[in-house]
Specification:
The chain has eight helices and seven strands; from the N terminus they run αααββαβαβαβαβαβ. It is an alpha/beta fold. A five-stranded mixed sheet has the order 4-3-5-6-7. A two-stranded antiparallel ribbon has the order 1-2. β3, α5 and β4 form a beta-alpha-beta unit. α1 packs across α2.
Length: 198
């Protein structure tokens, strides 16, 4: 195999879920593409990596300082759905059932991986609630052990806000499932059947 091909396969196989065989197929496909298409692809990836930022309000990815969801006056600004990752926002948005705002934690608490509560955007969430106007927080955290730990921690932090309704998405999602891989119908039912946490 040529050295250049080996390098491309090596780089592509660093992507999650891409093994060496898939990386080789992708590399061969790129080789068959028009040069301008490949150049446009690499420009897009480069711009994305260098210009994307996190929304100052919710920590979602955005081209601007404040993402389109947070700046949308038509959305319900009294409800915040707390998720782990940006991919979870996309999963919920694809259901077309939720019209509130989001808050992206940036992960879950995981002592084994060295992720502490201070590594997440929990303080930013509390600042948003303390600023006023938020009536309900929906916790849409995965049902893994780390997700449950994060949920418990969030509950303790959010109880400092009297009158705040704290709900969790219904647990129709299987234990250990990651939200971004759950089908839209299951997410829809989970959102519609959320319950208040005592």
């Amino acid at each position: 195999m040529s050295q250049l091909l080996q390098e491309v396969v090596g780089e592509l196989s660093k992507l999650p879920g891409v093994g060496r065989r898939t990386a080789l197929r992708l590399a061969m496909h790129i080789l068959r593409m028009e040069r301008e298409s490949v150049a446009e692809m690499t420009r897009s990836i480069d711009r994305f990596r260098n210009e994307i930022r996190h929304c100052a309000v919710c920590n979602n990815l955005s081209d601007e300082e404040i993402c389109p969801i947070c700046s949308d006056a038509e959305r319900d600004h009294a409800t915040i759905c707390v998720v782990e990752q940006v991919a979870d926002v996309l999963s919920i948005e694809n259901t077309h059932q939720y019209r509130g705002l989001y808050h992206v934690l940036g992960g879950v608490i995981s002592p084994m991986q060295g992720i502490a509560p201070s590594d997440l955007t929990i303080d930013l969430l509390c600042e948003r609630i303390a600023a006023g106007g938020v009536k309900e927080v929906i916790l849409a955290i995965s049902t893994s052990v780390e997700g449950e730990t994060t949920l418990f921690y969030l509950l303790n932090r959010l109880r400092q806000f009297p009158g705040l309704k704290i709900t969790s998405i219904a647990r129709g999602i299987g234990f250990g499932d990651e939200l971004e891989y759950v089908d839209e119908l299951t997410i829809t039912h989970a959102l519609l059947n959320r319950r208040e946490i005592e």
